[in-house]
Amino acid sequence: MAFLAGRKHWKDLGVTKDQIFTELRLALLSLPMQKFGKNTTAAADELNLERPAIPRPRKIPRRLDTGVASPHMFQSPEAMYRQQYNETVDTATSSLDCRFSQTAFKHMQDIEDFVTGKGDCKTNLRFYGDDLDESRLRLHRDMCIDTAKQRGVQLNTFQEVVGFLKGDKGDSLRTMLPELTKLVKLALTAPVTSCTSERSFSGLRRLKTYLRSRMGQGRLNHIVILNCHKNMSRNEHLDLIADEFIKRTATRRNTFLLKN
User: What are the boundaries of each domain within the chain?
Assistant: First the structure.
C-alpha cells in the first residue's frame, strides 16, 4: 500500500494530511498576489523576457453564445493570474480533503491499534461482520504478539505486522494464525491511491492528446511503455535503433543516412 511506506503510523498519516491542508490554506493568505507579481516581473526583466500579458480575446461562435452579456475581460495580467492562483489552491485543498477521507484513516487506525495490541477488535467486527470470529481473532492476535516478543521483533505499526507475517519466514505463522492473517489481507485491500497510478493515467492522457491523431493501438502501447520506463529508454543507443529502423525497408535506405 502506498501510504505505508516509511513505517509511519496511520494516525500520523492523518495528522500529516491535516498539516498539508492547513499549509495550503495559509499559502493562499500569506503570499499576496501583488508581491508575487512584482517578483515575477522583476525576474522576467533580469532574464530579458517579455512581461506577462493578457491573451488576445477570442470571439465566441454565435452558435455557442447563448447569453446576451459580454464575456468577462481581465483588466490586468495580475487579475488574471490571481484568479488562476486562487483556483489552483482551492482545487488542491478540496481534492485533498475529498480523496483522503477521515473515515478511511480512522478505519485503518483501528486495525493498526488492534494488530499491535493497543486496541480492541469490536470496531473491526462491526465493519467486517461474519467474516471474522471474535474469540479466534483475539487469540491469534495475542499469539502473534507473543511470538514477536520471543523473536525480539517490535510490532508498533501495521506495516511491521505485515512484514512479520509475509515471506517464507512467516509461512508457518500464517498457517497457525489464519484469523489474524485474514484481517491483514482484508486491510490490505482497502481502497487507496498512489502517485504512480495517477501519474501513469496523466501520461496516457498527454500522449493521446499530442500524438494519437493517426496512431494505432499497438504503437500507442509501445510509446506508453517507453514513457513509463524513461530510465531504461534513456540508456538505449538511439543511433543503433535508428540504423535498424532505416535498414528494414529500401525506401528508408534510399532516403536516410546510416550512422554506423
Answer: 2-50+74-100, 103-188, 220-260
